[in-house]
Amino acid sequence: MKHVIGLDLSITATGIATADGHTYTVGGKAALGDRRIVTIADAVNNEIRWDTDLVVIEDLVSHGPGGGMAAAQVMGAIKCLLAGKGIPYALCPPSSLKKFATGRGNASKADLAVALYKRCGLELGDDNQVDAKWLALLGHDLLGDPQIDLPAHNRTALTGVHRAGSAARTATEGTP
To answer: CA–CA separation, 52 vs 46, rounded Å?
Structure first.
């Protein structure tokens, strides 16, 4: 089985799906300031192992109100962390994540949660964890290690995912 981590980045509530199947949320209130970025980066760093095959990150929305700058700061910190460790990552547009999970690129957060429950029997703590779990499942598919049965139509969403970082590295190459 591949070692894949899913990240739904947000300065207030980053969802993390670990390679061992657990999910949790990390972040904090505005009063913590930039310390939240450090807390998120530390949490992600704690999940990375020498044999991490892929980290899948929900890409930033390029339009819409609110939170864009803070999310970009978190994304930058995580990309620096992964690049520094030689860990391959993929950026998944929100519409591709939704299509992978539900078959529709415009699905709601509730739709993703229902789909996760129906396909995996999982009911997670919040929508950030749900997104992170779907990102990890998508990453397994990208690596040819699918963890769940999905209609072929859902898997067409994989074409929208951009592999970045040290994507050519494999676990057999040893520690980064």
So the answer is: 12
Structure tokens at 99: 């299509």
- Please give the model's pTM, rounded to 2 decimal places: 0.90
Number of domains in the chain: 1
Note the pLDDT tens digit of each residue in 133-153: 999 999 999 999 999 999 999
| The one-letter amino acid at 98 | K
Q: How far apart are CA 173 and CA 35, in angstroms?
A: 34
Residue 176 lies in a domain: no
User: Which structural domain range is residue 126 located in?
Assistant: 4-171
- CATH number of the domain enclosing 70: 3.30.420.10
Q: What is the DSSP string of 52-79?
A: --EEEEEPPPSSSSS-HHHHHHHHHHHH
List the beta bridge partners of residue 15: 8, 25
